[in-house]
User: Fold this.
Amino acid sequence: MGPTFVALVGNRYGYRPIPRVIEEKEFEELLAKYSSDSRASKLLLDWFCKDENAIPPIYILQPISTQLPGYSDTSAQSHAEHEEAVESWSELQQQITELLRKAATQAEEEGQMQKEAKHKYFKSITEFEIEQGLCDTREGSVYSSIFIRDVPDIQDHHDQHQFHKYFDVTNDGSIDTEAQELLTSLKSQIVTKYSKNLNIHQVQWSNGVLDEQSEAHRQYLHNLCQNFVEDIKRQVLIRVSERQETQDEMDWLFEELSHHMALCHKKSSIFCGRAQLLASICQSIERQDKCTHGPLVIHGPSGTGKSAVMSKLAEGVRKSLGKGTVVVTRLLGTSPQSSEIYSVLKSACFQVCLAFKLKPPLAHIVNSYNELVRFFHNLLSTVSKKNKEALVVIFDSLDQLSSNDGAHRLHWLPKECPPKVHLIISTLPEEWNILNVLQEAIPSQENYFKVEPLSCEHGQQVIDMLLTTVRRKLTAEQQELILESFRQCGQPLMLKLSFDEAKRWSSYVPTSELYVAKGTQEAIRFLYARLEKKHGKVFVSHALGYIACSRNGLSEAELKEILSLDDEVLGHIYQYWSPPNKDIIRLPPLLWTRLRFDIGDYLVDRQADGFPVLGLYHRQFVEAVHELYLTAEEKIKCHSVLADFFKGTWSLGKRKTITLPLLKETLDADRKVSAQPLKFGDDLVNLRKLSELPYQLLHAGRIDELKQEVLGNMEWIVCKIQVTGMKSMLEDFSACTKQVDCPEVQLIQDALLLIWPTVDFMENGIDPSVLCIEMLARLDFFKGSYPMIDELCVTVMELSTDCTVLIAGSLDGTMIVWDLQDIEVIHTLTGHSAEVRCIKVIHNKAYAVSGSFDHTLRLWNLLTGKEIYSIAEDHTDYQHFALLQVDEATDVIYSVAGAQIKAWHLENGDPLFQLAGGNLDHTTHTAVLGSGSSLLTVSFGGRLCAWDKAKGTLQNTHCLTGLSISTPTCISPLRNQEKVAVGFNDGVLAMISLDGSCVTANVNLSVTFLVASEDGNCLVAGFEKYARVYKLDCSSSLKALKADLEHGGNVQTAVFSKDGRLLITGSNDETIRVWSLLDNVKLMDSMEGMGVPITSLSVSGNTLISASHSAYYLKIWSLAYDCQHKTVTPFHNRTAIIGLSQDGKFVCFPQTGDLEKIVIWNCEEGGAEIIQDMRHIVKHISKIKLLVISPQCPILFNKVSVKGCGIYEYVKGVMLQTLAAGSVICCLMVVQLKKLLVCGLRSGSLLVFDMGTWQRLGCQLPPGQGEAVQCVAVSRSEEQLAAVYSSSVVVYGLHSTGADPVLGEVLVTFSTPPRFASSSVAVLSDCRVLLGVDTGELYLYTAANTPPTVLEPHGCRVTCLETSHNELYALSGCQGPIQRIWNLSERRWDYEMYYKGLFFQGVICAAFSQDDRQIYTGSRDRTIKVWDLQNGTLLTVQYVYAEVTRIVPTSDGMLASTRMGYLIRERFTCPAAVAPSYNPLRNIKANCSVRARQGKGVRRVYAAGPIAEASKRPQTKTLFQNIAHSRLCSLL
Assistant:
């Protein structure tokens, strides 16, 4: 982004070396000048050898050690020989230099050599580097910076002892005039060509500037550095400005395409052989172009040349499909944008859209991985439907993808391609299990092509082509040496490694001195050995070791800083001399630059965490590093240094002690490594730290630090979830729990798993406060037990047998297949347009049949996610009875809709037979028995019909005895006994045989469901609140167990465990009960937490799934737990009737199963109940209707968009006692200050209890006969109590506990409107009454004989009425989206709040804060909302996982009870700071607006929510411009 080259030019021209390489013609011309001087000729020929392998041939200066062996021996024992060799070379170097320069000068004079060619024999390293740095820089360009230091009077001081440091001198100490002339020429060229890039600093020798100890010298350096920084900044800004002016929003895509096109061309240019393989692949592509087909898979061992084949295919497919074919090629892992599947799909989608002129994906699609995968699949279908140019997508080396987003599980990969679309992928056979996954999903072997090793002939061709690209060749002996090695291996990677070694061979080197590896691994080891020899083993091993030990690779800047922290590397570098600055020690950057250059293409650029990083070229290179350098001890050391770096241990000036071994010197020095904060600013997160630090700490064995810095750090958890998502955070926890047995880490991981659905549900980013609250609520129970959790809290259907697969469908017919291990979408099944009623999974999870109210039957391929066919049939009678059964032995589908039975061939969907009418009517229930058996129907009056399963012909008809007036209600096949069990509406349970014989039992109540165990030995029948278990034996009798299984509400469903030992029942009392069937029936457990009636259960192993017709979520339970340590729900209240004391000590509610008794619950301190559920956010929300388990590998099908989360905070307690009411309880009210409990009964009586003694203090009879108490209310002064009856509202005086009677005289009676049922009431201290009714009307009563004031009605049932503590305002809520704040003195509303959310169905309860500044509301969407009383604006929304039934304000917040039996304590804070951008719905899918009265008019003054964006609406001037909105309003 800044200058590409910086030059610092002083007064020294610099070292002028002998050219290392001289072309043959030029050298021989120079040599000819000494034809008569044999000594000079011999000297040149001794040191320059001709290399005929170069094209054209060249002469190469030989290494010094070839003639002077002692030169490179620096050992102490060879010191004398080394010094002698150094002295000898100094003399020889001078002689050779003089000979070459003299000959070059003569050649130029004679016209045989150009001036520039001659100049290279006089040129210094400094000039050479400046030429190279400026060679691509245009005159006047700003892409370089040159700083020149000029000392005008320096020649006058040549006798100074420091003169040689700043000026060129000869061996005798005199000025080197030739070098100075060359320097003057160089500076002149720089000034002429690059004046705009020039910075000149003139200094005087006489003023002491060049004295390193002087103040003048320090000031000079300060000015130079300041000038340097300013110049760099200026150029950076210029480059940024230029880029912004020329930058195209698609530049990133064009750069990516250019990279892969260039790499493909490079690989295909040296491609040879494989003609048969390429022809077979191209023929397959041509054959499949007009039909649906699977992707083509190219596979083969590592190094066999798969990438070259794929690159050649990218060129060849156009010959097969036409020149207009669009080819998308990605050589995965070779660029930053091709290392992660998300980036790959993103770039591929944009490229295809551009090529076919389609709309590119929108931002919300690009920002979501799952949405992007869906778009990619749909895009391929769209291209196919255009039916024009073909599309070929080539993804090479799937194994090179990172594991992010489950890339290696290939859920993103379409398993079928439509016509005109082709996918070609390649992979290693065993890496990441990718090939096995592909073979399961794409079983056809015609789609697989194996790349075999190259033949020796083709190997020779490849070598020749590779050598041609670098203008080299080999001698015949050398080439045979390469081919002999290749014959033993045959892998192109091996050939490439051999080529990289052979291109260094000179023709004059004897074959005996050359080495060729016999295999790929050996070649890699030889490469590393060559690097060690040149750069040192310590440096090479540690540099490569750090790259191999990194999680996703390292950037060059990171690697250099990490090596600067490595004491062993620095000790090796500074073994002969001390660092130039003993306060700062770093790796000299040039050392890495040299090593990087020598490694060459075997280090590649990739992308990790949004940054370009370096990675080793091939997995075999990584394996070699581990084998050679990373012993267990060394690996831990590497991970520890990496952990220190990403933790920032030695940053910000913190010094690290190092002992330089050979110098025996200990230094305490700053390593000058970058700081590693969690965030670099408010919006810039340190993604590299988030990714690497957990990995490095874990593998370094620093578990305590891992727990403290990462897994137990709330700031870290929140930050990582916000930036990388919950899945990435859970991967860190999972990696830890796999290696370390740590219960507290497991608990936090479980809590995060439960939070995951809530996080996915958030709109517009993840709110940190929500995450903190969720974590605290779940883990607070464990505080005091685990130090890690203490610190953390202070800082802030159907399952497969292994519980891995879930399929969820919505009311619109969409079905989604989930992988539950990684919580990711496998497929989205689209086709049905209405509610799915029946589903059957067949053929070991490979296929599924579904029936829908859209009157279609559809067959799905669950491996590819595609619909195979659709059958139209009438499903109108699904409302009476629905059944879908598949006989896999005969491949016949039996579809039943009420009185209509159809059979279809599974293979092609052709009809087999149809039954309707006659013996079948709307009461008919059908069962399909096992293969070879019959199809049975049972209808009204006990009419039994047996039908042939193959032909549909009627075999027998029987009228069952004793069932002449009975109507079947449910049926269950008993396939092991070839019978059916049928339940009837009159309580009869019949077990019926094919011959019409039956055994009956009676339960006296209508049988609602029948379920048989898998072994056929047990049958359970459900009837009202009970379930009865029958043992089935050979005697064909129904033997009921002694005791019926009881719930507090009607039993809706049941399921047996696979071994038949357990029975699980679900009821509309919202509980699940687990019963043991061994010996006597025993209740093992009762599980709370569903929050709605349970209507469907499925079980697989120890995993239980519960669902409900009334819920938009399902829950997954583990049956493998210790019941003794299971927490329980504090109170079992399944009604909205509840009384709650202000201190939270007592909760009063009707007893489940006996509504004539009041339960008094005494609360104590407690913990948290953890229940998990799953959810998936889609556009269409529905209720769960069905759970189906496949016999082989069960998969969950349900008609629901799964939402919600199951973690509930509560306060434990004990049941104190029960109070008999004598009639069904209709309402309860706690009088807080007087500590009274008021109970309204169906009989019309009012009971009053003392909450201190729980003694009844009074009973008030109803004003009329048979008038039930509909609702009650107490005034804020607690002196008045209003009771609502069917025809009147009576206001009583209310006295203290010691008074007799407590309920005093009638103060006033108001007549209520006829024909309306009152639903809510509020009473004021002056006996005014506010009354709401079922139809939405609101009345304000002020005097007994005066008609009430009719207030503006709601459009639906009024659910709550609450008054402020000063009784100036009231809140009315209803079942709709409208809530109003009423000004009671003016008898009109001041503010109307509109709130519409995805699940919002009205307000249940409300309360004013004690200071009357806020209003708390509890809604059916399971949230608590806080509103500002002064302006009606919404302050905050908190999801609490259950419907709130009562809210009581406290001094700092409120107390709330829920329908799931939990008590919530909240503290509310509302900062005064103004933040206009604050949006309380930033994480909620909802819209909110407020209207206010202004004089006689009404206008909207507030709006919030993702849809109500200010930018999309006309700006209106609010009435409350001076009101300070909260920066953050939160419930804690």
Confidence is low (pLDDT under 50) at residues 795-803, 1165-1211, 1509-1532.
